[in-house]
Task: structure prediction
Amino acid sequence: MILVTGGAGYIGSHTVKLLRKRGYEVVIFDNLSRGHKEALPDGVPFEKVDLLDYEGLYKNIKKYPIEALIHFAAFAYVGESVENPAMYYRNNVVGSFNLINSAKEAGVNKFVFSSTCSVYGNPETIPMSESDTPAPINPYAKTKLMIENMLEDYDTSFGSKYVALRYFNAAGDSEDGDIGESHDPEPHLIPLVLFAALGKREKVKIYGDDYPTKDGTCIRDYIHVNDLADAHIRALEYLKSGNNSTVINLGTGVGYSVREIVDIASEVTGRKIRADVVARRPGDPATLIADNKKAKEVLGWKPEYDLKRILETAWKWHSNPKY
Result:
């Protein structure tokens, strides 16, 4: 049985769906502070447990025959982490320590960890490789790197094996429109662009058009949530085969600018989308693109969704969201 923490959240719920499709038994832990109970599938055991409740965590881990866990549960807003770092260190770092340690005490020694490309900070080179030195520039990214360090130390001392997946810009939604991205507030570009297409927002803000990129707007590497889910399951199978702990980037290796996102979204939706250029946001790097060679070599993974398909699945969901 696989434990998925944060399984009612965006990436967690899509991973649960794919795990079940591939025949895995799953149990979900989520405190529903930011996840959605509507995203929980019928017939899957669910425990409403908080990572800050050590006793509750340990008791519920012992309750199930868990062989490995996939850890998504975290706060993940960069801006919020800058405004309230204490909340992020408590929830993400203390919570993850509780999970890692209680799992070890309960005899679970395989972890797939949802990390982030934010651990690299402002990139030294493009594309960004796992050999680049991490230099996180905000509390959110720092918490993720601390958790990676914790996992490394638990491997050294206790032999607990892990794969930390550093992903780039998660995007898109389930093909069938049953589950999808739903954040409040919504920080991500693709939903915000589609909200403008739907008339839920008047316009999209483009933060700066004077970057050293092809059209002056920031470039990012967008990866479909189902491709991420597939990589988590491959990482799980990699650990079950007795392999060593490792860190792996997840991205398509292709970057798109903010203007390109707006233009392709306009094509997919058949609607004109107003985009206004405003001042740059502090701390936004011009370009973030993954070097994904390691994911292909080590996990045998390759992304299946291009940007158009990502936008089509997102449009299907945001046109008729279930939650």
Notes: The chain has two domains: 2-170+222-250, 189-220+253-319. The chain has a mean pLDDT of 97. The CA atoms of residues 136 and 142 lie 6 Å apart.
